[in-house]
Specification:
The strands form 2 sheets. The protein has a 9-stranded mixed β-sheet with strand order 2-3-4-7-8-1-9-10-11, covered by helices on one side. By secondary structure, the protein is of the alpha+beta class. It is built from 6 helices and 12 strands.
Length: 229
């Protein structure tokens, strides 16, 4: 009874209801992507300590990237590099164990036919697909990757960075908010037979074309904007 009560309690939360919706519609062949677009200040100080003796983090270009490193299709990787995205990969004794991607501007997403446009342009980057091997998730590698990427963003003059966080992942939302992230938009995308229906903060948009990407401008949350004044 204890576990059943706990699960029923989770369904009362927005994240729990979103998870249930994805499961139910998935049974009918309808794909659902439910996420928040978050914005946070680029950190001015490192989050983690020095790299361990066996850890190396370096920028990787399209020629050096290897599909076998992480569970990502090569077509996604090619699209990222074509758009100008930057990738840093962490190695432990020569083995790839984690990565982070930064896009210095608008980005055509992997999951759907949308193009996220972080605002203000030139001041807000897009960070995505931070991946850590399971064996390294309890250590400092996330912070170390984030420190390297943050240093690059500061050098390029970026003041904020935007990202996509699964709306059903309450733990990840809380973790990002602890780092100063604030919610800019709530987006839900329904996919069926090549059609995509976009629900953006209550506004419906239909994309019937397989070759068209819908732009989603990501405004700077008022809370962050006020903090700068």
């Amino acid at each position: 009874m204890g576990k059943l009560t706990e699960r029923l309690g989770r369904l009362k939360s927005p994240e729990g209801r979103g998870f249930l919706l994805k499961r139910v519609l998935g049974g009918f062949g309808i794909g659902v992507h439910d996420f928040y677009l978050m914005v946070q200040p680029v950190p001015q100080r490192p989050l983690a300590g020095r790299l361990g003796r066996n850890i190396e983090i370096r920028a990787i270009g399209p020629e050096a990237y290897r599909e076998a490193w992480f569970p990502r299709p090569q077509r996604f990787i090619d699209l990222r590099f074509e758009q100008g995205a930057r990738c840093w990969v962490a190695f432990k004794k020569g083995e790839a164990v984690g990565c982070i991607w930064i896009m210095p501007g608008a980005f055509r997403e992997d999951i759907a036919r949308i193009r996220v446009v972080p605002l203000p342009e030139g001041e807000t980057a897009w960070d995505f697909d931070i991946y850590i091997n399971e064996s390294m998730r309890m250590g400092r590698l996330f912070g170390q990757l984030w420190d390297v990427a943050s240093a690059w963003m500061r050098e390029q003059g970026f003041r904020w960075t935007a990202s996509r966080i699964d709306a059903t992942n309450a733990a990840s939302l809380r973790a990002h908010e602890r780092l100063g992230a604030r919610r800019a938009l709530h987006v839900r995308i329904y996919q069926l037979a090549g059609f995509e229906l976009l629900l953006q903060d209550g506004r419906l948009r239909l994309n019937p074309s397989r070759r068209r990407w819908l732009d989603i401008p990501i405004p700077l949350p008022a809370e962050l904007s006020r903090a700068e004044t």
